Amino acid sequence: MRVSRAQAAENRERILEVATKLFRERGIDGIGVADLMKSAGLTHGGFYGHFKSKEDLVAQACSRAVAKTRENWVKVASQAPANPLEALTSYYLSSRHRDNAGRGCAMAALGSELARQGPDVRHAVTEELRPFFEYLSSVVQGNSAGLRREKALTLFASLVGAMVIARAVDDPVLSNEVLQAVAETIEDKGNERNYSTSRTKPRLRTAPPTKRTAKSPVRTAKA
Question: Is the whole-model pTM more than 0.85?
Answer without folding.
Answer: no
